[in-house]
Amino acid sequence: MSTVEEKLAELLTAETADLVLCYGDSITRGVPGVTYLSFINKKWKLKNYGLGGDTLIGLSNRVFLNMENRRRDSYILQIGTNDILLPYLFNHSELWRDRIAGLIKRGSKPCENEHNFKEEFERLILKFQKQGKKLKIINIPCIGEDLKSTLNTKVDTYNNVLKTLTDEYGIDYIDFNNWQKNMLKDKNNGNNYFISKNPFDVAIDSLLTSFLPVSDCLSRKRGLHITIDGCHLNTLGARGLADLVEERLCKQRM
Q1: What number of CA atoms fall less than 13 Å from residue 127's CA on the CB side?
Q2: How many structural domains are present in the chain?
Q3: How far is CA 62 from the centre of its chain?
Q4: Domain assignment of residue 153, given as a range
Q5: CB-based contacts of 198: which residues, under 8 Å, 6+ apart?
Q6: CATH number, domain containing residue 153
Q7: What's the farthest any 2 CA atoms get from each other in the chain?
Q8: What DSSP state is assigned to residue 71?
Q9: 37 phi, psi to nearest 5 deg
Q10: The whole model's pTM is what?
């Protein structure tokens, strides 16, 4: 096939492809940090529905509001980090409490525990299956680059819930967490830098990374490898997730 024919084929694919709706939290949104959607081939028609601070319950409500109005679209979900992180930050410092109260008032309420998380996620999956929607689920990324932390132990528990549900319902499971662990296993996993006790610092990171290509500089300054603050992705982390997602998108077309 000639180069011209290849280009025409790509354009035709883009025109006829279903829209892929990418729901998630700030990791999908890419603020602060970098979104994985930036590194996926433009032939895929992706739409970013990431919302900073969102939880499983908040995302479910957003999806339910729009799902019945969509027809052929497929979905990628990335959620769960804030179900673990927000309760931690609430106790991390008083400065976070007003911010988290605002998120909960908005509708981004964290699940109470892994059992509640399983109930809510199963309800979401059943809704997708009832509507006949294609669904891919990205598991919960590491929270902090210290893999031995209490937070990451909890992440593993929640991801076991996700893996059980995706196996049971035959849903694509994108194991980003394992990719991160492989990237960090030969690094100094005792790095203590984590999200600031002052939410204003996260707001500054959001502002800086939205307008300037400084995500990787922040990572290096803080001694981090795949994130800018322990959670939000730098270029390496975003590219890694993009590769995993695009691999699944290509398999969907086969």
Answers
A1: 16
A2: 1
A3: 15
A4: 3-253
A5: 93, 95
A6: 3.40.50.1110
A7: 62
A8: S
A9: -65, -25
A10: 0.90
